[in-house]
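Lab notebook, entry 387. We have the chain sequence and a SMILES string for flavin-adenine dinucleotide, and the next step in the workflow is to get a structural model of the bound complex before anyone spends time on docking refinements. Request logged below.

Task: model protein plus flavin-adenine dinucleotide, output structure tokens.
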Amino acid sequence: MEKVAVTIVGAGVIGCAMARELSAAGHQVFVLEKNPGVTQGENQSSRNSGVIHAGLYYDPETRPLKASLCARGAAMLYDFLEKYDLPHLRCGKMVVATDGAQLPVLQMYQDRAEANGVKTRLITREEASNLEPMVHSTGALLVPDSGIIDPTAYLHQLYALASGHGAEFLTSTTLAGATLRDDGIELTVRYRDGAEDNFLTGWLVNCAGLYADQVARMINPESTYHIDPMRGEAARFYRTKRPELWVRSMNVYPTPYQVVLPGGAYWTVGVHLTPTLEQMPNGKWGPGPVVTVGPLNFGANGREDYAGQMRPMEDFHREVVSYFPGLRPEDLEPHQVGVQARLAGHQDWVVTTDPACPRCLHFLGIDSPGLTSSLALAQYGRELMEG
Ligand SMILES: Cc1cc2nc3c(=O)[nH]c(=O)nc-3n(C[C@H](O)[C@H](O)[C@H](O)COP(=O)(O)OP(=O)(O)OC[C@H]3O[C@@H](n4cnc5c(N)ncnc54)[C@H](O)[C@@H]3O)c2cc1C
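Result returned:
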């Protein structure tokens, strides 16, 4: 039976970043992707907010991987985007308080940002309104290293680099089963026409996103990880339509708050305003006319719950009107739906080898800020594999 050195399951940003990282280090890499295309990133990697997070939200005690890899990943990502001249903008972000009671929460996030090595500055209402005149606040936390990215262009570059280093991508190819053997892991793959094939791999790297728990159980039936998919809807408006909608260029977030979903209570960064990118006449990237408003999160009806009616625009409006009072529900229209791979019972990502199979590396629950952190996650994954 044919044997390959490393098989990666999933060609989203994590699988593609791993493929680039490992192929550049000289490993023979095969990537299996169930969808027909790689560069569309049809699951989480294209259906996201496209924000480069600076890394201020994550408590190093309870979310050590997110705390360390987001800030490091953002720095690596900016270097990468600049090197390959990919669409992005280091536009900065304001986390705004709309009443005095929220200011201590911002202070707490500033302390956390400092612990994570992230630059922030508490600013007054006047400073905030100089930066974004239509945003209402009683003060804000300014995060200069937050930004926006075109996730699909980034994914495409990772794919091109990995391919250039010899990684092979098999699309419309689903991992359907795995058996541990003395000489490796025997994988069963299913093609688009239903035909199946088997081959051996030395390493299996599970980057299956919303299906990573199922892949983990193929390797180890005792695995108890469970992905609890969370649907996130986004609306949009055109900042050029009315003077009251003038958002200059920043990401604007509310003060984080707790929400309760069927899987339990968790802190959310909240429904935010995020500019989209547009190429300027000088060739540089700047903020385009569209601003997204989202995500509005709730338990998903299945792992690929993209269809179906979005929440009424009034629901998005209600979330942001306290800090963006010029917006009216009728200014909003549906933008996109995404589903995040939230790992039930875990606040942090789990990146680990399998207890039943030390040559299988799992990336489990890679929800936000997985896009931002993808290069650092891949480096971390390779280091785990190389011991
Ligand atoms: C609404 C939303 C907003 C977000 N906003 C941000 C943000 O602003 N900033 C940020 O940093 N992050 C954000 N994220 C998170 C980010 O998008 C994810 O962390 C990242 O895309 C995860 O990439 P991935 O490769 O793990 O998963 P995916 O992109 O889901 O890729 C997994 C791939 O595995 C394939 N696959 C699954 N099972 C199999 C199988 N058995 N065989 C073969 N292939 C298989 C799938 O088809 C898929 O292509 C957001 C996510 C969502 C949903």
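Notes for the group: The first helix runs from residue 13 to 24. Worth checking against the assay data. The CA atoms of residues 259 and 265 lie 6 Å apart.
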